[in-house]
Specification:
This protein is mainly alpha-helical and 77 residues long. It has one helix and no strands.
């Protein structure tokens, strides 16, 4: 009887598919975690840069450029 051989191959195929699914799930979670780490590092770098420029933590930034005066706006031609 060759019927048990067929069932063993199916289990191997299922086991291989499960292993591949598990590896893909681990890879996806690792990439998400890496993205979170990169975000936190970028925030820390930006915070250091702003503190060197005189902005303290938890303060609002203000624009350095002046808004145009109402009478000096350019009109489209």
């Amino acid at each position: 009887m060759k019927l048990p051989g067929l069932f063993r191959r199916e289990r191997t195929t299922i086991a291989t598919a499960d292993a591949q699914d598990h590896a893909e799930k681990l890879l996806a979670e690792s990439l998400r975690l890496l993205g979170q780490v990169c975000t936190k590092v970028a925030d820390a770098i930006e915070s250091q840069r702003l503190s060197r420029q005189g902005y303290t933590h938890n303060t609002y930034l203000r624009r350095a450029d002046e808004p145009p005066e109402p009478g000096t706006e350019k009109k489209p031609s």
